[in-house]
Amino acid sequence: MTFPRRNFLIGVGSMSVLSGCGALSALGDATTPLDAFELRAPDLPQAGRMLSRSLSIEPPTSSGALDIDRILIKPNAVQSLYLPGARWSDKAPLMFQTVMLRAFEDTGALSYVGRRPLGGTGDFALISEITDFQAELSADGNTVSTRIRLVARMVRESDARILARRSFQAMAPAASTDTLDVVQSFNLASDAVLNDLVRWGLEVIGLRLPVA
User: Fold this and answer.
1) Residue 149 lies in a domain
2) Which of 192, 186, 196 is closest to 38 using CA atoms?
3) Largest Cα–Cα distance of the chain, in whole Å?
4) Is 37 helix (H, G, I), strand (E, B) or coil?
5) How far apart are CA 174 and CA 181, in angstroms?
6) What is the model's pTM?
7) pLDDT of 181-209, one tens digit each?
8) Is residue 4 domain-resident?
9) Residue 145: inside a domain, yes or no?
């Protein structure tokens, strides 16, 4: 679906109709069905061995504009809108928690990866904040790129000590303003962030993934 050329936008805060950009359209009423999309976990190399360690991945925190299942797109630095006719399969932070979990788990590096500690106690916890998770429209309205930025902290569960902190960011261009291409650009940016995040997280815990 290509963004319709109309001068109607839906703002994030009040959800009132605004004017000023020809690349997005009004969202319609609450009963309008929306196509659902989700991100995939990246293909990372398998770890050479498994550590007898557990990792719980907490839901990332985020601002109110991101803590929703709508796909955020910014036509400029001061305006936040939602992509018409499309949504994520879950609220963006919860969806990203799922792909983080899958990315760590798929490496086979840890004996347990989950949303909460196994048996009430665990070894490590990954705490994060999503500060950017949006598509960005060019000034002429003809091209889109995606930006994802995550601040992560690895915490030792036994004493709640923060072992390491790092921010991760990636941008990826969309092939067109078609919805599928915009979602694919989210996947490309997500893959880059998760590749760096998983490698960093495992190194903090004590294991280095092989270079792909």
Assistant:
1) yes
2) 186
3) 57
4) strand
5) 5
6) 0.85
7) 999 999 999 999 999 999 999 999 999 99
8) no
9) yes
Given a contact cutoff of 8 angstroms between Cβ atoms, the answer to whether 11 and 18 are in contact is yes
Q: How many domains does the chain have?
A: 1
Q: Give me 2's structure tokens.
A: 């290509």
Paired tokens of 137: 């429209």
User: Would you say residue 197 lies in a domain?
Assistant: yes
Question: Count of CB atoms within 10 A of residue 136's CB?
Answer: 19
- Residue range(s) defining the domain that contains residue 158: 40-205
Hey, what amino acid is at 65?
A
What is the tens place of the pLDDT at every residue in 154-179? 999 999 999 999 999 999 999 999 99
CATH number of domain containing 173: 3.40.50.10610
Decide: 69 and 88 in contact? Cβ < 8 Å: yes
Coil, strand, or helix at residue 35? strand
Query: CA nearest 127: which of 160, 92, 103?
Result: 160
Beta-strand pair 79-88/70-76: antiparallel
Query: Residue 164, Cα to own-chain centre: how many angstroms?
Result: 21
